[in-house]
Each structure stands twice: as C-alpha cells, then as structure tokens.
Amino acid sequence: MSKDDEILRILEDNARVSDKDIATMLDIPVEEVSRIIKSMEEQKIIRKYKTVINWEKFGREKVYAMIDVNIHPERDRGYDSIAERLMRFSEVRNLFLVSGMYDLFVLVEGNNMKEVAGFVAQKLAPLPQVTSTTTHFLLKKYKEDGDILFDREEAERQPISL
Amino acid sequence: MSGIAERVRKVPVSGIRKFFDLVLSMDDVISLGVGEPDFITPWHIREASIYSLERGHTMYTSNYGILELREAISEKVKESYNVEYNPENEVLITVGVSEAFDLAIRAVVNPGDEVLIPEPSYVSYKPCTIFAGGKPVIVETIEENEFKPVVEDIEKKITEKTKALVLSYPNNPTGATLGKGDLEDIADIVREYDLTVISDEIYDRLTYKGEHTCFSSLNGMRENTVYLNGFSKAYAMTGWRVGYAMSSEEIIEAMMKIHQYSMLCAPIMSQKAALEAVTTGDRDVEEMVRQYSRRKKILVKRLREIGLSCFEPDGAFYAFPSIKSTGLSSEEFATRLLEEEKVAVVPGNVFGSSGEGYLRLAYAASHEDINEALNRMERFLTYSHD
Questions:
Q1: What's the pTM?
Q2: Cα separation of B9 and B174, whole Å?
C-alpha cells in the first residue's frame, strides 16, 4: 500500500491524528507527511475534515426524510440540470442518481416535520421535471457512513492477561 | 499432609494474580497489560457461528475436528509455508494452542525427560512440562542477542535426557522473531541430537518485518516438529478457544489419544467460526496487522523518547522495554506505576528470571490509550527514582 493510501486510511478513521504520529507510524519524516496531506488537499482528494456527531444525544432533534423522486429528464442534459438545481438547497444533505423504480434519491434535513414537508411541497414537487415523489420520514438511525450510532454494551477484556 | 499431588503443588500460582486483583479494585486504569487483541472477532466470523447454531450444529465432531476445517487449515499452511500435512491424520483441532501444547508435551515426554525452554517466554510451557512429569531446562535469551536463543547456549544445556525444544517465535513477551537463518542454525542441532521441536507459532501472522518462516518447512524438520498454531491472535478469536497441531501421523495420533479421552473435541460452534476465519478472514487479518504495526511504532518511539531503551519488536503485539536504568525491579516498577499513575503493565520477571528488569507493554490498545499511558509513564519516571 502506498504512503498516500495509508495516510488516507489513517485520516479517514481519525482526522485528529497528528502529522507527527502519522510520520512515526509510517516511518517517514514529518515534513513528508505534511507535504503529502497538503498535496492531497490541493487535489481535493481530501475534501474536508468533519466530525461524526450524534446530535440526538446532544439534545437536538433533527428530522430527516428520504425522498424518492421521479424525473422527466431533459434533452441533452439528462438529469444533471435538475440535480444541479436541487443540490443547492441547504436542506438537501445527500443527492444520488439511482437505478430502479426512481431516478433521484434525496436526503432532506429539517428542524421539524413541518419544515421538511414544506420543502417537499413548496420546492421539490412543483418543479416541472418532477413527475412524482415518495417521502419516507426517518425514524431511527442505526448506522451512518460506516459508524454504528447507538451505544452497545461492549465486550470487556480482562485488564491483565498473559 | 497435603492432598494435592506433589508435581502440582510445587508449581506456584501465577504471580500475576495479586496484581490482577489490584487492577480490578481500581477505576480508570489504562491497561497495556493485556495479552489479547483489542479487536472483536470480525462479524462475518461470528455470524457464521450463529448460523451454524441456527441450523442445529450442536453435536460432537470427530476427535480430530471437522474434516473441512482440517482441510482448509492444511491448504492454508501449504500455501503460506509450503509444508504439506495430510488433513486426514496429520492435523488435530484443539481447544486453543494451550491444549495443543499440553498434548504435545504429554505425547512426547517420558518421566524425567528434559525439555529446553527459551525464556523469557509465555508462562505455560514450564508448568505443562512439570505436569507431564518432564523437567524444564531454561535457555536464557538476552536483549543483546535480540532475545534470540543462541545455538551454543542451547547446546550447552543438552544432556542425554533432553527430549524436546520449545520454540515460540514471534515471541510473547519480547516480540522477538527468528529469521530463516536463525532457524536453520537451530535445525542443525535438532538434527544432531535428534530432538523433537514443539513450535508454537500463534503469532506468525503478526510479523512486521520480513517473512515468517515455519520451522517445519525447513529441510528435514517436518518429521521432528510439532507445529502449533491457532486463531486467537490473528483473527481476534481468543475466547473461542480453537487451535491446531500438525505433525507426523504418529505424533498426531498420540496427541489425539489424550485429546480424545480428556477433551473429546473442540466446541463445534468454535470450529465453524474457525472455518469461516481460515477461508475468508485474510482481509481482516491484513487490516489488523496494519493497525498493530502503526501502534507499535508509536509505542516504541515514545518509550525511547521518555528514556527507556527498547528492543525493536518485529512480531506479536508487545514491546519489552528495559527499566534497568531506574534501579527498580520489574515488580516494583509495575506496582508503583499502577498505584501512582494507574497504568497497568506486566512485570517482565513473570516470563522467567531473564525477564527481570523489563516490562511487557501490549500495543493491542487504542492509539489514544497508548499515548496517554506513555505520558503517565513519562511523569512517573521523573519522580520514581533519583
């Protein structure tokens, strides 16, 4: 595995590991680590550093809906023009073009159900290319972006073993 | 007069016990004293076992273990080390390598036979030898020789009673590994004195530099060797208790006899999990090895930064730094470090008298815990001796 690859894996798992520690892990100078990271930031391979937050635990209830959208594609531009329009709404967290019964999969975030319903009714459904929408309100998150989100009883190791 | 048999009575209870109780009585201890992975068994392996239970696989298996598992292990060993063992009668599935070691010793040792054991080493070789009526003969290894057994030192301990030599590399607790050349030198004296080698290679996959060499892959060594391995370390499966022994039909049959009349067979649900591990677990192992390797470098570097000399461990998941410069004994250091800084490590003398002056620190722990434990150790070193 290349150094670049290793650095990406380390940061993907924990973005707060210091350059110095990465350098030790990979047996390369810290300057080289900084240079590789900077270069990958410039190439937008590393897009940004974020934090996985359990907002519910913090006490902020957010409402999410996953919306299946059917689209009438435009000549020459296919689905791109409607997608470009939709992705600009800050309420839209994820937007994917998918195969199957529907065309677009939209994840919408709002502070309450009314806000989300309002977005669908006012912004999304009335678009001329949109032929139908099916809204699924999210009831519980179990796993998000590879992270299991609820606290489980973790297996305990014996504190000392030989 | 004690009702306990002489040879059991003379083996002391593990010295780590009171230390263990002390750790349990304290809160917020960071432990680098653990001899097992901090990963949970990968889900697909657990799931395979659950599925086998759902299908009602709750019976005894063959005394040798499930044939499919023996075949898969045999295939894997051939692929990795180019040694062939017939899955029908040269492979035995055991309840962990611990049982396999006990069986091997009992199968080959007559009362009074001597068994050479390099130390520092894992704690069960000596007691098992005594329980089997054999006499453990210690070959000390030292840091100056990278904790490798020196052929001349082994040779000096050989008498006409010497029956077997125990090898356990990569080594717990030192992290030492033996390269092909080292092993070939040992093979020469094994040949000369016609010894049986019991080679515990449980940490084979956790080798960070160079390639692991399986002792029985050396020219002519297959017939002299009982090769032991298991699933605990590589696949994070300590609690499942599955290991295996591979050797000549004669030795495996002898071991199987003891196993048959004492253990009967390894638990079927564990064998099913092991089958999943050996057939599809390579990616998990690679990922865990990558993580251990990174943590090892952090730990060893920090140990040296805080002023402890540390032998470069190329295998297993332990560092074995020297604390001789502090003037404290291993036990004093470990006890005070625990009481004063709440960091648990294992005193090196537990692994034999040549481990005195050392500590065993496991890096099967999170990056954060390793850093915090080392910060506390650094503070401890500033006031613990002057």
A1: 0.89
A2: 29
